Structures are given as C-alpha cells and as structure tokens.
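Class prep. Write one:
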Amino acid sequence: MADEQYNGRIAEIELNESAAICVEQIEDEITIVIASVVGIHFQVTAEQALDLSRALAVAAENAAKFHVSAG
C-alpha cells in the first residue's frame, strides 16, 4: 500500500443548495474544503483526519439512535 498514490477529490458532500464539504488528497496531504459563499480550506494530518472521521461516526451513530427512539 505504501507504493500507492491517492490523488484528487475523495468526496463532495452537499450540505444544502449553497454549501458543501469536499475532501481532497494528494499523496500524504489531506485537504478539507468548506465551500459556500466563502471557501475555507484546512490541511490536516492523517491522524487528525482519523480523529475527525471517528468523531463524525460517533455523532452519526448517536443521532441515528436518537431518531429511532424518538420515532
């Protein structure tokens, strides 16, 4: 796997009609873009990206449990 190179956009998640979050990767550089009227770019380390991924997964799981118990 170390020889593989990942280049380009990994995901584009549309939040609403005027905003999206994009994740891009070129080799070991990961960029998170919050695109709206004004774009904000964050470069994060692989460890930070994993932490963010875990936090979003926990929040999504909690929200899904809440949705089931409320419905």
User: Anything to note?
Assistant: The chain has one helix and four strands.
